[in-house]
Amino acid sequence: MPIKAIVFEVNFTVWSGILDPQKWGKGHSARPKLEDNLERDVSDKRIIRDVSDYSREIRLFEDIPKIIHDIKKRRIRLGFVSKDSPRAMCDRALYFFEYPDENYKDVPIIRNVDFDETGNGDYINIFKNIKGWASAEGGEILFFDCHEESLAVERELGVHVEIVSHRTGVTWDIYNGAVKKYERGGGGGGKGPDTPYYGQPKLGKLLGEGKFSKVYEAVDDDDAVIKVLKNWTTEQRRRLLEIYAVIKTGRPFDPGSNQQDQYLCMIALELRNLHIINELKDPKPEDFSGWFKMKKIQGTHVWKHRLYRKHPFSVEFQEFIKSCMYLTMDAIEHVVKKYGVEHCDAHFKNVVFDFDGDKPVRASLLDWGIAVRMKWDGSRYIRGDDFQLIVPIYSDSKPGMKYTPDEFRRYWIGWMVKTEYTALWSRNVITSRDGEEFLKDLNWWYRR
């Protein structure tokens, strides 16, 4: 696939340093317009200084003129972006910095820029526009940056992103290697899963987004969805593998107060659990690089059913959600007995149902991040030693606890009722006073 456009973040990628509007043009002889404070060094044309403070400078990385010459020679369209520096300052710098044109005459870089999108940090929209302007698919655009958060452009739009060192910027070897790699059609390079988002399939419609991840339809598999973690890094992968090596054996991993380890432990548990219950489609947990494809669970959330709109203290509502809760309990027990994993957060947001009219007939569980090992020995359920990072309200799921089938059902049905009615009063559907009074007697709920 040919490369139709090559785009650079300017700061730390094209030149060393940053054109920071909060710092440039602040000296005693500063000029009113920020861009007027940029001046090319008289002895080195690859350096631009701040006329109000000569100690402040940016330096064009050595190979950039050669790289731009090659881009224009190949008739590839050229673009620049910057999320931290105003366009006027960037344009002035790109005017002072030069490259050799087709006649090897030094000319200002700015004269041959096709996409000047500096001064705008909304990279997703910028690259959507560039795709249109260049009549290019995401895989026909190459973007160089030193910030790993720019990998979001690759995840969402399919643009090839090369992360470079802020110390060296884009070198000729990096540029030439990337062009050769992607023009051959290689998407992941030779680094394998250590490369963030290595091998990630093409993403379809965005289905949902949380603080740490997004979930998409899988273009190539109607029976799957793809979960993509935000801002995944090689360093995170290395630590994740260490954590996964512990928990896959059933041994507990305690992340303590380390927030990064807490985050990675949740990911490791979700991967392990999905793998155990045969819902992880790709990749293997050991090959995780920031995304995974999992089985699409079909069904309807309970709040979309008409009976859920009845008053929470009405007979219709209670009989309806009681049936849903017992089907959820059936699903929990089925997975424990078949796979040895206990879902520990089966509130209605994490369950979907099949309905036959007003009758719920089957429950399916979602979101396996909060789940632990559990064994059924033929007479009792025995919880494993997994460290449970998040313990939902009303939960008492300590490692090693043992339950008869009746005790296990009473425990989880009680938890579901309390969790549901607490959610109802938190949404002001009922008052907390009425809800707390209602929860004092759950005997009816324990009878199926």
List keywords for this structure.
Phosphorylase Kinase, domain 1; 10 helices; elongated; 448 residues; 23% strand; alpha+beta; Rossmann fold; 5-stranded antiparallel β-sheet
Describe the model.
- There is one protein chain.
- The chain folds into 3 domains: 180 residues, Rossmann fold (3-Layer(aba) Sandwich), CATH 3.40.50.1000; 93 residues, Phosphorylase Kinase, domain 1 (2-Layer Sandwich); 146 residues, no CATH class.
- It is built from 10 helices and 22 strands.
- The termini are far apart.
- Keywords: ATP-binding, Nucleotide-binding.
- It holds the Pfam family Acid_PPase.
Topology diagram in text:
Elements: E1 5-9, E2 15-16, E3 38-40, E4 47-50, E5 53-60, H1 64-73, E6 77-82, H2 87-96, E7 98-100, E8 106-108, E9 115-118, H3 123-133, E10 141-145, H4 151-157, E11 160-163, H5 172-183, E12 203-209, E13 213-218, E14 224-229, H6 234-247, H7 259-276, E15 280-282, E16 291-295, H8 315-339, E17 341-343, E18 351-356, E19 359-365, E20 371-376, E21 381-383, E22 402-403, H9 405-426, H10 432-438
Parallel strand pairs: 1-6, 1-10, 6-9, 10-11
Antiparallel strand pairs: 2-5, 3-4, 4-5, 7-8, 12-13, 13-14, 14-16, 15-16, 17-20, 18-19, 20-21, 21-22
Helix pairs in contact: 3-4, 6-7, 8-9
